[in-house]
Specification:
By secondary structure, the protein is an alpha/beta fold. It has four domains: 3-88, Arginyl tRNA synthetase N-terminal domain (Gyrase A, domain 2); 118-165 and 254-370, HUPs (Rossmann fold), CATH 3.40.50; 168-249, no CATH class; 392-562, Isoleucyl-tRNA Synthetase, Domain 1 (Orthogonal Bundle). It contains 23 helices and twelve strands. It has helices at 4-18, 22-28, 45-51, 55-66, 90-104, 134-152, 169-180, 183-188, 190-207, 210-223, 227-251, 268-277, 311-326, 340-352, 374-377, 386-404, 411-428, 440-443, 451-470, 486-496, 498-508, 512-531, 539-563, and strands at residues 40-43, 74-80, 83-88, 118-122, 156-160, 281-284, 287-290, 300-303, 330-334, 361-364, 369-371, 436-438. The strands form four sheets. A four-stranded parallel sheet has the order 5-4-9-10. α12 crosses α13 (311-326), α19 packs antiparallel against α23 and α22 (512-531) packs antiparallel against α23. The relative contact order is 0.11. The structure holds arginine (ARG). The site of arginine (ARG) has 8 residues, from loops.
């Protein structure tokens, strides 16, 4: 078992001694900055305030109560000023944990705390017939990682792509297509072409404002089920979706549901009616407004005076439908921070409608990406085509590989894994709420805080293991010798913290914890490898070290997979 049970054991004992709950004790435990201070530290400041005693005195008292106490995990407890430091048994690390990692392999790190619970993740959600923005790229990458992290914690996860496939822009697009559209160009490259039509519409409408009216009429026709409008819309939707799906396949992402905004059209009336019954709706010049003034939020429109419903009306209907369908334990909306107000209003409305599960809906916001490379950021303003970003990443990775390892087989597959990995990790390593400056050189730096650095460490281990296998030496999951070096202990402890990091990432919906962790692990591995020979060490040591590097390989691979990144065997 990893270190989590050790932590839980400490928490249970602390709880028995102090009267705190085990949970409280567990969240109070810290990871000391230096391993000479043990694997976990318990700061006594909190208790000091409660008991009105100096924290040092409490630590001393507790240390006395722990004295002589050991267990399968616990070696000893020491007081250090106001802290209590807990040390894990090396025998546990090398003789139980290490073989366990090798035995569990691909499932090492997973937990079952979410068993029996469903989590919905609403992510990606590009808008059809509008360009796929960088925001959608972030949502896609973060959302995918969250899906995988929740799954690793035992939850049933439903990934939903709430496609933006409804709205007045379709009226504009229909007008533009009927006037200037060419079916062959559309079929050839739908997303770019639809975007060009959209831009063209705005250019033309500047000269001829009546186009705007025409667009409104066409949207109206679409809403009332006009056959021509409907067919065009369906055609645009199908083509765009095909294109998005190609991208998702390339990123290794699949959704459990593609129910988009248009799929709720038949539920909007009932939703508005519900709000009306609850007295939430007032009429204002023919429009329907949900009144949120008394709740510290601006009111919002549910229906315009021309009868059209809004984004939030569709989100309300979708949330209600989803709760009926999935009875979720939690629902995440992975959407940019610019929509914070929208989600505050949405959750407040759900609460006012009497749904107590509104409290389980969470907006997971993120900041913007700025692309440092002018070529990517300036083409037509802020628009960026995800496809081009990904293609460029793979191309750049290929150039680097060509230079570093010209004789590598399967260069294309490796370039793909490295290029895509670089983009994904370049996003996930950041605290999601901050803006990201995306710099190609930085994300592809093989020695930097990057996916290629981690992937390279993984490939290095694969090469050690290949050489060992050639000498008929395979790491075998038997209790290993206690490895003597500090670098070895650091590594095995890091391996033991894997599930704790997954847990934390899920608790805060922050995949960056796992990204950081993997980076640290790869660094620790490289320090170890620099100082401790593996294949040339004496037999007992060699066996233990081979197991250790094999275990590092497993965690690097599992961890990268959780972030949606592949780990090639060679680079
Ligand atoms: N399509 C929306 C946009 O691009 C994002 C939708 C997010 N999900 C939701 N349920 N509102 O802004």
């Amino acid at each position: 078992m990893p270190l989590l049970p050790f932590k839980k054991e400490i928490a249970a004992r602390l709880s028995a001694l102090t009267g705190m709950t085990a949970e409280e004790a567990e969240t109070t435990l810290e990871i000391p900055p230096d391993s000479a201070l043990g694997e976990y530290a318990f700061p006594c400041f909190h208790l000091a305030r409660r008991l009105k005693k100096p924290p040092q005195a409490i630590a001393a008292e507790l240390a006395g109560q722990f004295a002589g106490l050991t267990s399968a995990y616990l070696e000893r407890v020491e007081q250090a000023g106001p802290y209590l430091n807990f040390f894990v048994r090396p025998a546990y690390l090398f003789q139980e944990l290490l073989p366990q990692i090798l035995r569990e392999g691909p499932s090492y790190g997973t937990l079952d705390e979410g068993a029996g619970r469903t989590v919905l993740v609403d992510y990606s959600a590009p808008n059809i017939a509008k360009p796929f923005s960088v925001g959608h790229l972030r949502s896609t990458v973060i959302g995918n990682a969250l899906c995988r992290l929740y799954r690793a914690c035992g939850y049933k996860v439903v990934g939903i792509n709430h496609l933006g496939d409804w709205g007045t822009q379709f009226g504009k697009l229909i007008v533009a297509y009927r006037r200037f559209g060419e079916p062959a160009l559309l079929a050839d490259d739908p997303v770019h072409y639809l975007y060009r039509l959209y831009v063209r519409f705005h250019q033309e409408a500047e000269k001829a404002p009546e186009l705007e009216d025409e667009a409104r009429q066409w949207f109206r026709r679409l809403e009332t089920g006009d056959r021509e409008a409907r067919e065009l819309w369906q055609h645009f939707r199908d083509l765009s979706l095909e294109n998005f799906q190609r991208l998702y396949r390339c990123l290794g992402i699949s959704f459990d549901s593609y129910m988009g905004e248009s799929d709720y059209n038949d539920q909007l009336e009932a939703t508005i009616e519900l709000a009306r019954q609850r007295g939430l709706v007032k009429e204002s010049e023919g429009a329907l407004v949900a009144d949120l003034e008394g709740h510290g939020l601006p009111s919002c429109l549910l229906r315009k005076k021309d009868g059209a419903a809004l984004y939030i009306t569709r989100d309300l209907a979708a949330a209600i439908y989803r709760h009926k369908t999935y009875a979720f334990h939690r629902m995440l909306y992975v959407v940019g921070a610019e929509q914070t107000l929208h989600f505050q209003q949405l959750f407040k409305l759900l609460e006012l409608l009497g749904f107590d599960w509104a409290a389980n809906c969470v907006h997971v916001p993120f900041g913007l990406i700025h692309f440092k490379d002018g070529r990517m950021s300036t083409r037509q303003g802020k628009v960026i085509f995800l496809e081009e970003v990904l293609e460029r990443a793979v191309e750049l990775a290929r150039e680097i590989i060509e230079e570093k390892n010209p004789s590598l087989e399967e260069k294309d597959a490796v370039a793909r894994a490295v290029g895509l990995g670089a983009v994904i990790f370049g996003d996930l390593i950041n605290d999601r709420i901050k803006d990201v400056e995306f710099d190609w050189e930085k994300v592809l730096d093989f020695a930097g805080e990057t996916a290629p650095y981690i992937q390279y460490s993984h490939a290095r281990i694969c090469s050690i293991l290949r050489r060992a296998a050639a000498a008929k030496e395979l790491p075998d999951p038997q209790p290993a010798a206690l490895l003597p070096e500090a670098e070895e202990k650091t590594l095995i402890i890091a391996l033991g913290r894997f599930s704790e990091e997954i847990n934390r990432a899920v608790r805060d919906n922050r995949p960056s914890y796992v990204a950081r962790y993997l980076l640290e692990l790869a660094r620790s591995f490289n320090r170890f490898y620099h100082n401790c020979p593996v294949l040339t060490a004496a037999e007992e040591l060699r066996k233990g070290r081979l197991m250790l590097v094999a275990a590092v390989r497993i965690v690097l691979q599992n961890g990268l997979a959780l972030l949606g990144i592949e780990a090639p065997q060679e680079m």
